[in-house]
Design a protein that fits this description.
36% helix, alpha/beta, four-stranded mixed sheet, seven-stranded mixed sheet
Length: 468
């Protein structure tokens, strides 16, 4: 078991930590006693109206716990240790560039605006989403002009219009307003992690203690941010992760953060030749992780029935923003928008006594859901190994938000958590953008190294093929 770092106390789970771990362990279908294998180091916390660090520690710990549980198939289940401080840092940025900088993740138009009757957030990072918002507003692409135009709308009317135009927006609601909203009610009835059996799938693969996921192939069709966090975790324990992006997609602000340990290729699934390549990749995959809206892959001729026909043993892990039922089940969304919709930003505003929305200090819904996806994926491997069963799994940012909102909160406000040199590995990562230090792993499974054998790389830098 990893010892606490110098000057830190070792603490058992309790309060918000225990709440989250118990809820996640139950959602994973693990015996509750397995939670006893998780121990936390340190008392650092991110300042927030919500228990963000407790969520970070529990989500990362639960993902590591599923690795421990998997190893029970070839021996005893090893203990898990989570460093609360490092968990908080990995929910922000794990990479520290040397001599280069990361670009801003936000488009100049993206952000919060005061409408005629409340606040609304426009998410305009993708060019098509930006164009949709500007078309609805009848505005040019200057922030003062957008600010003026938004004031002529009610927040909900603008939200509805932008979404109908193919854009992304979210009016700020309070927690009670979201609880009474049809979508809020629908999400509250959904499980945190929804497992569905998908047929018999005998597996001859076995984990090894040193690299538990070695030999597992992960096909990654996810974008910023939850899905890439999930597959980064899987790569850290030895999985062969192949990320596929369309030819016109880039996310320069987060590529150095989330492509760690992966190979990144491009395919245009609208082209028959590239769909054929993709079908071969599906046939050779163990895990398929994707964040497309429910009907999107079906429209490309790659719906779940097709994927199952190609690979009956596939473990299929799916992410959605606003949940899988209710009137918004097909709505585009991102972490910052879900925070506005579900009341998190409004609660932060009240907590801070601010005059504008206050989001979480990190994109915790994305990161937490990412680690829950990773946990669900490894749990799927265990079910396939022990019971010969393939599974489909569904998660959503909105359901993770409900977990966070319902958790106990610590009344004390901690100081801001700033990265220190001791938080980073001394080794230099030769990422495609330049040298960098990477934060130390936030968790350890005794005997199993969490490490990445490939540095972060640019999208499209590898062929769309499995390694021999």
């Amino acid at each position: 078991m990893t010892l606490p770092r110098s000057g830190e106390a070792q603490v058992s789970t309790g309060g918000g930590d225990q709440f989250f771990i118990d809820a996640i362990v139950e959602a994973l279908g693990l015996p509750q006693r397995t939670a006893d294998r998780v121990r936390l180091n340190g008392r650092d916390s991110l300042p927030s109206a919500f228990a963000v660090t407790a969520l970070a520690s529990a989500a990362i710990g639960a993902a590591a716990l599923t690795v421990s549980d998997l190893l029970a198939a070839v021996g005893s289940a090893p203990p898990v240790v989570v460093d609360r401080r490092l968990a908080s840092l990995w929910f922000g940025l794990s990479i520290r560039p040397i001599g280069w900088t990361l670009p801003s993740p936000w488009d100049p138009i993206a952000g919060d605006y005061l409408a005629a009757d409340g606040w609304i957030r426009l998410h305009t990072n993708a060019p098509r989403h930006r164009a949709a918002a500007l078309a609805v507003l009848g505005s040019n692409a200057e922030r003062p002009a957008v600010t003026k135009a938004v004031k002529t709308w009610s927040a909900e009317a603008l939200e509805t219009a932008v979404v109908a135009a193919g854009g992304c927006a979210a009016a700020m609601r309070t927690v009670p307003e979201w609880s009474a909203h049809p979508q809020g009610r629908a999400v509250a009835e959904e499980p945190l992690i929804a497992f569905s059996p998908a047929g018999a799938a005998p597996s001859g693969w076995r984990p090894t203690v040193a690299r538990p996921l070695a030999g597992i192939r992960v096909l990654d069709l996810t974008r910023v941010l939850a899905g890439p966090v999930a597959t980064r975790f899987l790569a850290g324990y030895g999985a062969d992760v192949l990320r596929i992006d369309p030819p016109d997609w880039d996310e320069p602000a987060v590529e150095p953060e989330v492509t760690l340990g992966k190979r990144c290729a491009r395919l245009d699934l609208r082209q028959i030749s590239d769909r054929t390549v993709f079908e071969r990749l599906i046939a050779g995959a163990d895990l398929f992780v994707h964040g497309y809206r429910p009907e999107a892959l079906g429209a490309l001729g790659l719906g779940e029935a097709v994927r199952r026909a190609i690979n009956p043993g596939l473990i299929d892990v799916r992410l959605d923003a606003y949940g899988w039922s209710g009137p918004w089940k097909n709505r585009r969304g991102f972490d910052s928008l879900v925070q506005m919709s579900t009341g998190i930003a409004a609660a932060g505003m009240a907590w801070r006594r601010a005059d504008k929305p206050v989001p979480l200090p990190v994109q915790a819904l994305d990161h937490a859901t990412g680690y829950l996806m990773a946990a669900a994926a490894v749990r799927g491997l265990a079910l396939r190994l022990r019971e010969g069963q393939a599974t489909s799994v569904r998660l959503s940012l909105a359901r993770t938000a409900a977990l966070l909102i319902g958790a106990p909160r610590d009344g004390a406000e901690p100081e801001a958590l700033s990265p220190a040199d001791a938080d980073y590995s001394a080794a230099i990562e030769t990422a495609d953008w330049g040298p960098a230090h990477r934060a130390l792993p936030p968790t350890s499974v005794a005997g199993a190294a969490m490490l990445w054998t490939r540095p972060a790389s640019r999208l499209g830098s590898a062929p769309a093929a499995w390694t021999p």
